[in-house]
Amino acid sequence: MDSDTSISFLRQYELSIEKTDRFSKDEITPILMGxxxxxxxxxxxxxxxxxxxxxYAGHRTAVEEEFGDAFWYLSALCRRLDIDIESVFAxxxxxxxxxxxxESKSTVSKELxxxxxxxxxxxxxxxxxxxxxxxxxxxxxxxxxxxxSALELTGLEFRKVVDDNLNKTLGRFSELDRSKLEDFDxxxxxxxxxxRHFEIYITQRKSGLSYLKxxxxxxxxxxxxxxxxxxxxRFHDVFHMAHAAVLHWSPTFRSLIKQKRxxxxxxxxxxxxxxxxxxxxxxxxxxxxxxxxxxxxxxxSGVSFDxxxxxxxxxxxxxxxxxxxxxxxxxILQGYAVFRKMKENNGGIVVGNRDERTLRYRPIGExxxx
Length: 370
Description:
Blueprint: H1 8-17, H2 29-52, H3 59-80, H4 85-88, H5 105-128, H6 133-154, H7 158-173, E1 197-204, E2 210-214, E3 217-223, H8 237-247, H9 251-257, H10 265-270, H11 274-292, H12 305-314, H13 325-345, E4 347-353, E5 358-362
Antiparallel strand pairs: 1-2, 1-4, 2-3, 4-5
């Protein structure tokens, strides 16, 4: 996003972000409702830090994200009203430094209270004015001004808020360019890489235990659902295989097949070690609980943006955070498609292809014609 002009990053934002706007050009009500909701999130997140202080971890990142999401809706509204967002935020593009207000809450809390309340009231007026385009434009300009004032009081850098929102949103909604996706172990010896192609046999015995077999050898421990009401979690290793095939990441699967990157002690410790495994297992268990209310994503063509943003928080600090959210969506949907087949048939073969970033199901005994 580098450019010679002081305001070009906003123009670049507009040019890039417009393709993530899935609403029609004449739809204003959903944009207004979205902006109203995001401003509410700004108020809740900002005040949570000032109320809970150090108990609210990751406050700066959370507030930045909420301001970024609100800016997406504000820019979408400006496009529909033919408002030049560059001119509206012209003075915010100048390098002025920040107040570091998030670290100086005692001096800014009351001012921020007032600024956020004013912003909330202004967005309410937007909703009231939605049938009057002339009035709506005036109210939109007022909201932009109050947004800018509130942002300044938090001490956040406007450009970072805008850039982070752009990167996150494009990562969620843009079509994937495989040539630009990460391959986290390509530089490591072959025996430390996740296999480019794998077939894992999963069988269930009369005891109810499920077993994994790779290249004719049993791997991992036999699993049950470990819950009073069976839900198929005994087949949850499918999700780690989806991570491996689609994301090129899975410390759990690496551990199962004993192909950790031990030639680099730092990578072995930080990316493939016990904590990374716990993070992946925890994320998998959390998502599984969520998916139960959605019939394990049966009939779904997408994953909630809120869910994907939560995943992003889970994986902060690990190499997989460089994967776009769209790729995570692909991994989840492919993994659950295979899981549903596995549960239905009490076993089967999981076929992973890292080159194609695909995971599919094959019944045991059926030839692979591919």
